[in-house]
Amino acid sequence: MNIENVIIKDWRKIDFSFGLIYPNKFSLGISSYSIRLLYFLINSFDNIACELIFIPDDLNLKFPASKDYSSKNNLRSIENKVLPEDFDILGFSLHFENDFKNILWILDKANIPLTSQERQISIFQKKKHFPLIIGGGPVVTSNPLPLFKIFDVLFIGDSEQNLGQLFDVFLNLKKNKIKYEAFFHEAAKIEGILIPKLRNKVNRAVLKNLNNSPNPTLQLMDKTSDKKIFGWNFFIEVNRGCPYQCKFCISSFHNSPFRNRTLENITNIIEEGIKYSNFETISLIGSCVSSHPKFMQICEFIINKGKRLTIPSIRIEHINKEIIQLLEKGNIKTITIAPETGSESLRYALGKKISNEKIISILTQIKESLIKNVKMYFLIGLPNENEADIQDIINLLGQINNLGFDKNSLRVNINPFIPKLNTPYEKEIYFYLEKNINSLRDKYQILEKELNKFSSIKLKFKNYTNIIKNARLQTMISLGNQDISDILFNYYYNGANFVNLQKAEKELNFSIDKYLLKIKNYYSPWIMYLKNKKN
Q1: In the chain, where the domains are located
Q2: Nearest to residue 183, comparing CAs of 114, 88, 85, 65?
Q3: CATH 3.40.50 corresponds to the domain 8-194
Q4: Which of 277, 322, 369, 519 has the greatest number of CB atoms lying within 10 Å of its CB?
């Protein structure tokens, strides 16, 4: 492991320590802009040492941790090799619902009680002190309720403005100026801070001016392997949120409003970053980077600095001849687009008002350019989807294949649609009912069989049986209430595989089907939570 720009502080000169955890492997976590931002932000406080903790890449986890015979010492911070239990605060950055089991594994491996209640009872009774466990990120902002039993503190929304406020209150606790109970009540007064124990009403924290988010100029970078696509890239967040409000997208609804960093701020950050690190590539970060009003100027600035450019997926309707030529100059080898479906009616219903004719026209222009690879994302299991809509995906990709792209140059990802709480499609659970889930498998089988006939297409999905099972688990978590955590704890303790999920349903007399139907018919976990608060 060869990481550049780590920050190592003298623990004798700090007030408290913070273990920043990405609950997955290092190779994924080091490529997360959120981790780089939080690491920089927290370490900007001179009196706090923030160190990184990941699940080691070479660790094949066994669940629960009591059945994992790897050394406890494998789970130490990168900087000073500190065990998780020896930090004052452990902060988890949560991006994927299916990392739930990894959160429990990390705490379990570190001999830290998994529930907030257990830890706090131990502290109140002065038996043993444990770190404060806090969490934030898209999963938490989307739906914090299934996480209530684990976390002491949850961040809802942007954290740039309220991290310092929480640290001030924690420092009072650390210096014995206030008791634990008082700490929680004081923390609950901070905008965007949810204390599960108090079940306080919380407003999502919103950073109104993205220029006030301190995009790191001295960034964590991984130099260990050429296989890491983003680990050695410099990240610049150009915007946050999304202006298009596609009905399935949490960025549009949980991360609004859409905000752009100014061109001047962006160029200043890049200039400073070049001074500190010898990177070759700059990655633009944002849900819709091509919607930045100065998108072309940003790209031109990067190219003129002699740096390679990478961007996430680009809105299809934003692609034109000028954009393609600019991306060619930026040495971009692959363009990523998200048609979502081959059916125009389904696509329009999602909020993406672009025709198949337009998609073919854009792909024709790309085919004639120096950019020879296209990555495409599709969804199946969309509301009101039928067999004809699956055939529409095949037909659209068949037309694109006929444009004459090279073998395997069209990389196609097909994922099941996941309904998210507090989005327009939160009640669209039809395909995750037990009686309907096999239809997703049938769709995958048809797509795999037909799309493999096209020489230019390389399918990026493997083992779609597991993909579907993971999607159902993700749906349950994304729509879950506090009671869902009981199922997830049982699932974890019994081995965290899908057979054990069914076993957990039986042992706890809980039906995922019945819960999802309740969501479909009338129930909203978050509205019920707020209603109970009023009472």
Answers
A1: 8-194, 367-535
A2: 88
A3: yes
A4: 519
